[in-house]
Structures are given as C-alpha cells and as structure tokens.
Amino acid sequence: MMSRSTARGWGRLASVLAAVVLVSWGSDSRAARQEEEPDAALRRFALVVGSSEGGPGRERLRYAGSDALAMSRVLEELGGVAPADRVLLLEADRDMLLSALERLKTLVDGAAMPGVRRELVVYYSGHSDADGLLPRGERVTYGDLRRLMGLVPVDVRIAILDSCGSGALTRFKGGLRRPSFLTDVSAQVRGHAYLASSSADEVAQESDTIGASFFTHFLVTGLRGAADTTGDGRVTLHEAYQFAFHETLARTERSQGGPQHAAYDIQLAGSGDLVMTDLRGSNARLRVAEEVQGRLFVRDWGNQLVAELQKPAGRRLSLGLEAGRYHVTLERPTQRFEAELLVGTKGDAELRVGDFVPVTLTRTAARGGTVPSDAPLAREGALEDMPSVPINLSLVPPLSTSCLLYTS
Predict the structure, then answer these.
(1) Of 49, 81, 181, 273, which is the most buried if we count CB atoms within 10 A?
(2) Which residues contact 303 (CB under 8 A, 6 or more apart)?
(3) Which of residues 220, 255, 279 is at a domain's end?
C-alpha cells in the first residue's frame, strides 16, 4: 500500500509508507504569536479518500471504503468538520482526487475570516508504492500531493495515509522516536510529523474479524475517546497515535502478516497541542464506569464493531458515538459478559457493572483434537465474581485474529 516523502519530495523513500500524518504550518500561521487561545475559532476542512483498487497485479482491498467512511464520520461528529467542508471520495481515480484538492482550495479561499484558524485534513486508505498513491492504479506522486496541499491556504495541514509502510520513515535524516511534542493548548508548532502504521519490511494489515484495517480501526476508536488518557474530553494527535500503536501491535503480533509496529518521525519547532477530536460538545456519549474492567467490544445495532479497547479498573472513560442502540461485550480471560443500552442525544448513557449479564462460553476442539490456546473456558457466574487481572500498562493484551488480508 503506501510511502512517504522527504522534505524535497516523498518519492525518494525506498519502502512503502504506512500511515503518514503530516502537520505543516503555513507561512501565515501567526508565527509571532506566543500563545493561542485554547478556544480560538477553528474551521477544519477534510478530504477523505478510500480506494480499493491499486491496478494490475495488486489485490483488491476489502475495507478501504469502510475505513474512509469511519474516518469521515468521526471527523464530522467529533473533529469539527462540517458536512459542507468535507469531500468524500470512494473509488476515485487520479483526476478525481486532484480535482477534489482544487475544490478544497477554492472553498478555503472563500472562507478566510479574521481570527479563525483554518486546518486541512487529508485521509487516504488504499494502495501506493515507493513513488506515490495509486488510486485505481493511477499514480499521484507524493511530490504532487504535497505541492497541492501546500496550495490550500490553511494554517495547519494534516495528512493521514493508511497503508503498508516502512520504518525508514522514522530513520530518515537521523530521525528518532521523540517524546511527546504536544501540550494542553491549541497547536503552536511548525514543521511536520509523520506517523507510519508499520515499520521497515512489515505489512499493514486489514482484518475480516474487525471489518477494517487494524490501524484505522484503532485510530478511530482512539479518536472517539478511548485515547483520552488525561480525561479532559479531548483527544490529541499524540494520544491517538499512542493508542493506535499499542492496540495495533497487540492485535497483530500473532497474526498471519506478523507484528505491525506503528512508528513516527517528528520535525517540529515550537510547542503546543493538536487536538484532533473534542467529546465535550457531543450530544451522544457512552460513559463507562470506573469499576468496569476488561476488553470491551462496542457494536452498533447492525453488528458493526465501532470501538474496541482494554478498559482498566479505576479509569472513567467516555466514548463519543452516534445516537442509537448498542451491544457491548466485556471479555476476561475465562469469562464473557454482555450488555445492551441506548445512547440518546440528551444526557450521557452510563455503562455500569450491573448492566452486564454473564454468557456461557463453550470450549471447542479444533479438527485434529487440539484446543485453541486462546479459546475461553466455559464458566458462569456473577460479574462481581470476576477474577482480578493485573492491568496491562500498554492498555492492550496480546490477541490474535482469525481472518487476515494483507498486501505487500
């Protein structure tokens, strides 16, 4: 699937890019200003692209389109993107992608207002190679992508590319993993940050079990609130990355495609935070009580998995969701519990220990007489009798997936 650029052009990378996040500040980003109001007016524009076809000889991706839809929804619901400021392209070719960037340039040109910070988010899920994106097999070089994004007159540019990747991304020009560059206010940074969903010689994988690519699935879960480690109701770029890194690794370390290590390289000057989503303005939230502990799977009434995370005891958690009915599964090493609840638009829905009912799990033998090592033991009991399990500090236990599709 993808690659990234250098400062002179992304086409020089020898390996394939995984998920790139580029944060670039325009020359008119009020450089002389030392601080920025956390509640400063913001208008965010987005181009969201999902492309399953990569041309002859490349396998058709199953979830590029649904990944794009999931990202589009979370940006609109929690990321400050108005429907009129978003362009969604499914199975677009090269000309359609380039035309969409031109449309956004025109839209942003007409949206200039004093005191309003403008941001551009470009998300792409699909195929690529060392030279550029491959929507429907038609190349868009990374140099062209960067140039066209640079023509859009915004203060902040964010590019998220979900694809097979390379650890050369984090080693370019001696780049190393760096400490958090984000603080607790709106961003006051210049330069760029690259996030890759897989390291050198690794593949970025998508899964039939979760119905998505691993990295986008956990990135969206994080943006919906699972990554909010500070509990301030906002998810920063750093928080979202850390969550997606640990969850993606845990879910792929025993997969067919092998462990998938997200990586990043940061070339930033200044300080500040880039808030990606804000749950405080959401009218539909699911609050998970502190005493709930275990692996949570949240599915909508259509059985689509919308969030998955490891919930440690003692941490109160909120998820920004669409209004509707949800089915929640709580898994422990030898137990499973289920709950159903309605998330409305007035007030928060609360998920407590008492809402869960135990489910009897049956141990099954695989053909050949062996028992899968990760098969749960059959057990019934009250939720209050669940055994205490030490908290995994990475927030993610090692899990395997059953059906994988990956491309190199």
Answers:
(1) 49
(2) 327
(3) 279
